[in-house]
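Fill-in record for UDP-galactopyranose mutase.
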Amino acid sequence: MTSEKLLLVGAGLSGAVIGRTLAEAGYRVTVIDTRSHVGGNCHTERDPASGVMVHVYGPHIFHTDDAGVWDYVNHFARFLPYKNQVKTTTGGAVYSLPINLHTINQFFGRTLRPDEAAAFIEELADTGIETPESFEQQALRFVGRDLYEAFLKGYTMKQWGCAPSELPASILKRLPVRFTYDDNYFFHRFQGMPEDGYTAMIARILDHPGLRVLLDTPFEPGMAQDFSHVFYAGPLDGWFGYDAGRLGYRTLDFERFCARGDWQGCAVMNYGDVSVPWTRITEHKYFAPWERHEATVCYREYSRAAEPGDIPYYPVRLVAEKALLGEYAARAAAAERVTFVGRLGTYRYLDMDVTIREAMETAAAFLASRTAGKAMPAFVHAPL
Ligand SMILES: Cc1cc2nc3c(=O)[nH]c(=O)nc-3n(C[C@H](O)[C@H](O)[C@H](O)COP(=O)(O)OP(=O)(O)OC[C@H]3O[C@@H](n4cnc5c(N)ncnc54)[C@H](O)[C@@H]3O)c2cc1C
């Protein structure tokens, strides 16, 4: 048993998994969060009127190929099967996403088999673009103009707030098309939803006698002196009081509405037309397909640049942000007795499974550093 006291800033998945592992190793762990609930952005709560489990900061679907992480989450929650089947409304019709054989046949009024569809798409592709430099060029080279404009252009413009010609080609790494009728959005072996929601799961991770949780408690720099080490899952630039400027994020505005019965008949409906200002509507009862509710709760989702005070959702990570990130990361690397973790601490988009894996690695690195009598680094996972 060690008498060392550790502070975890953030009661999301990063803070919970690191905190739990180190509490089990005998450390005295305090987890604080500025919010009034645990769970970070994965937070779920039941709508009191309808009983629908609502994903308060946007829908979260658990999917992974990492068997260790899948075992871990199944230890703290019962996962029920969930398949993410996304639809999109574009040009006055509804299609299946990601672009698959059904989408292609419906969109072009064909009855193509897989090899025929692959040859057809190859004909549409703009092979004149040899080295795509932008998202737009990459999309045109992969699928040609018609599919690009119907399924990728408008959604991307709304999501990122700029023309796809201004975004790097790297955003679209692979051919965004399947030549089968498989409409499961994710390829991963394991996919599901925690029966009681993510907040209940994360509360169970945090439930350990060596760990205390303080909610409604924003981190203040003076707090660090009471602890031998801080794990900080807050925004990297926030640690420095944003003194060199703010790292760019996209934020989301959710327009929540309720209705009787069903609203759209599926969990996620994207909107591909630029004339529709929202990117998608999510109907939350469909994220728990084993439940039955007479009423329904939906979120209309709008994306825009985050301002001070907004919730930072998606790191922008374009050229200007990377320059500022380099500056903050260099300063952070020189800091002592603090490790920056998670999606905000390292300014990266991280799915939940990656967050958990990295949190496990961070806790293991801390234990190894203590055993070796070495200083714990500021980053176990570098932001750049
Ligand atoms: C819209 C959206 C949808 C997503 N959908 C999926 C999905 O379908 N599947 C998937 O695998 N992943 C999804 N993710 C990713 C998932 O949300 C992250 O993997 C996960 O939330 C990362 O956990 P974290 O603990 O690093 O960060 P967070 O969950 O953001 O937790 C950080 C916590 O730190 C707290 N905090 C910050 N600053 C301070 C401070 N100064 N003092 C005290 N507390 C502070 C915050 O309040 C927050 O609770 C999605 C993300 C977004 C934005």
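KEY FINDING: The two ends are 36 Å apart (CA to CA).
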